């Protein structure tokens, strides 16, 4: 009987199925509503983006028109010139620095002129000259200045890094160089071609100090300042060999690294000095990054011997008329601090600076600190 009543009784409502249908209905309605809302949002967003894009295009067009007007006013040239190094003659001269910000420029942001972007930190127009000429040391080439070149050019300075004869990518045979004037000819040619009223800041490293001294005697009116970086700063009648002889007995690293080359035969004087690659790190790059040591090991060339022997003829009227500055490198194993101070005391420059923690190659070991000093020296006014 109970079973019969159970069979005849109406079946209970399946609440789970009804709930599922109701949920599906609600979801469908929500989806329709969401899709409608999304379409409206996309339409509004599209309209907003179109408005911003149109405004930005209009602003860019105005900027382009302003640039064309400036070019016409300057006879077709841009209102400023960021010259690349001679080492990289094909670099883009007039390319502006790109902002590191990813934020889209607001329509209310001021429209900066190119020269404002370049000269935000330094007023280059206030300097006597903003053109640096970088001269490498013995065995080096213009390649060694790559960090300094980048930093100076980012600041808007004009930079020329020169390969001396038989150095860097200069094709002349180092062993065939017979005089200092032959070795520094690329520098002399460069200075000779400068405009009559144009001046530069000469920077010499290592043996490059002797080279810029030679140029200072020949072209004093074209040199605003001379900066010696761990460099040979000689006196009249002195040779670079004379300077190095003063520390010959106390510098075992230098003696171990040097290898004399005799291309004219062992019964003739050496033609060049080569440096043992395994000694480069300890002698020249004891504080420098490994990648720069590797670069130097495959790029350095022998040092011509004849220019090292040649005694300089320097006069107060010419060489002495150029303002000199010296940058010391206290961790230097090639030209010791004692030797650097001796040269400074023998022929005092206008000012002496020091790059703390720098080895013989501060353009590798302390590029930012070196850059800061170069810029600081460029801003020192005439006394």
From TrEMBL:
Family matches, as Pfam families: Abhydrolase_6
Domain of life: Eukaryota
Record bears the keyword Hydrolase: yes
Keyword Transcription regulation assigned: no
Residues covered by region (Disordered): 81-107
Domain AB hydrolase-1: 132-370
InterPro entries: AB_hydrolase_1, AB_hydrolase_fold, MES/HNL
UniProt-listed GO biological process terms: jasmonic acid metabolic process; salicylic acid metabolic process
Keyword terms of this UniProt record: Hydrolase
Protein name: AB hydrolase-1 domain-containing protein
Source organism: Lithocarpus litseifolius
